[in-house]
UniProtKB/TrEMBL annotation:
Residues 144-320 form the ATP-grasp domain. Residues 1-28 are annotated as: Disordered. This is ATP-grasp domain-containing protein. Pfam families: ATP-grasp_3. Coiled coil: none annotated. InterPro entries: ATP-grasp (IPR011761), ATP-grasp_PylC-type (IPR003806). It comes from Morchella conica CCBAS932. Keywords: ATP-binding, Nucleotide-binding. It comes from the Eukaryota. PROSITE patterns: ATP_GRASP (PS50975). GO terms for molecular function: ATP binding; metal ion binding. Transmembrane segments: none annotated.
Amino acid sequence: MCLDTCHRHKTKPKPKTPSPAPSTTTRPLNILLTNGRFPATIDLARQLHLAHHTITVVDPMHYHVCRFSRSVHKSIHVPAPHVDPSGYIAAVSSAVSSENIDLIIPMHEEIFYLAACNDQAILQRLFAPPLEPLIALHNKWEFTRLLTRAGLAAPKTWLCRSRADVEKLDRTMALALKPVFGRACAGVYKLTPGKPIPAGLDVREDNHYVAQEWLVGRRLCSYAVVRAGRVRAFAVYPVEDTIDGSSAVSFVSVEHRGVREYVEGLVRVLGEVDGQVALDLVDVEGRGVVAIECNPRATSGIHLFSRTRALAEALVGDGDGVWEARPGARRQLMPGMLMWDRSGGYLAHMKRLMGSKDVLFSTRDLMPSLMQPFLLTSYYKICQERKMKLPEMFQWDLTWEPEGEELARVRKRVDGFVDGFVERGAAVDSVEA
């Protein structure tokens, strides 16, 4: 088995060299990936295909990168969950039946629609925690409360339900203002001492924000596959090249025992769950690692296992070892790297550009790369129709933004889940409305 970017070990020892192990998966599975458009999706599809699994993808886009991949058995067009949730669930359920699906691996925020559905055919196959812990990880306020339950370092955090709450904040420190249900840099503001509150800040009852202390230090991301409450695959990478100050486009695996222990501490409080847990962290001098938010789904950490069977083993194998990305393993998203426009650091950026393998390009699977001009033309046409910029358009029809009665139900369920661990307001600061 190829192990050029990862190594396997038991829970305690940490060998310094790759140690190949035979596949322990009982049989090849039919696996459904819940969208086909992201680089992480095609990378994971290739990894699972390498382990002889059959891959089906569903996506609201007619044309996406996975549609042209040899690693994907079938691509099925489905309604957009953001627009037609019930239609999306019905289409996924139909795909589960027609393709005899054994496992559903969520790739983006469609995970929340699937976890909230009542379709047992989906829920029994969904590789995700139950809805309550899933949303508690995603909600930036509840996530901070979970960190305190786990005894982990957490940023000072205040819940803001209105603009009046924002005005009550301690303005002597720099703060990050983020929607509790948000992604990447969307709706994020930095409050600087002495500067006015941004006029466009949209804090209201249906759109709570958190205010976090602005942490200064080394920015890191982690990615973990969790099964039955145990970490089965793990990777850490620093945030270096980005195209929006948040979305990384180059990835290099590093060892960081502090992050590993932090993730394991969080996983312990979640119980016997399955799923993917990805953290954004800051390594603060004199304080250690502090998580600032969590993505309970697939992320770019998948790329650090490229061209191996490691994640396939972690996701469906019968062994009990932990697969870690090999320190120094490098991958990049070439289009994003070419869009990098920061001043300074040019030589370091070019070194990474020339020294890292592209995620998308594969001599064994050329069509996804060759079809990029066609796909970009298709994407920009959709952008024009929806009057959106490309990053927003690319995620919009998959995003989960509960409102009204749905939001009230979600808050009640998640509050009850987290309150089972922590008395409300006892462990983190709160600005009440």
